[in-house]
Amino acid sequence: RGREPAQRAAAQRLIAALDANQFADRQAAFQDLKDTMTLNRETVEQALQSDELSAETKLRLQQLIEHDNATCSEATVVARLVE
After folding, report:
1. What are the structural domain ranges in the chain?
2. Minimal CA–CA distance to 45: which of 61, 59, 33?
3. Average pLDDT score over residue span 65-78
4. What is the maximum span of the chain, computed from C-alpha positions, in angstroms?
5. How far apart are the C-alpha atoms of 48 and 59, rounded to whole Å?
6. What is residue 51's three-state secondary structure?
7. What's the rounded Cα separation, in Å, for the pair 41 and 62?
8. The pLDDT value given to residue 4
9. What is the dihedral of CA 53, 5, 72, 44, to 10 degrees?
10. pTM as predicted
11. Contacts of 70 (CB under 8 A, 6+ apart)
C-alpha cells in the first residue's frame, strides 16, 4: 500500500500533462497512462469527474477508459477460449 499514493500522484501528473501545450508531451502522457491503465484506472475515473479539467482532457480520459474496457473484454474472451 505504500506505493499507492506515489502511483496516484504519478497518474495525476500524467493527467495534467494531457493538457500540455506541446503535442508530443500530450501524446507521451496519453501513452504512459494507456500502458499503466490497470494501475491507474481508479485515478483516471476520478479525474473524469473533476470540474477542473478541460473538455479535451476529459475526452482523452474517456478514450483511455474505452480502450481499457475493450482490452479487458478481449482478454476475457481469450481466457474463456483457452479454458
Report:
1. 4-82
2. 61
3. 80
4. 47
5. 9
6. coil
7. 11
8. 84
9. -10
10. 0.77
11. none
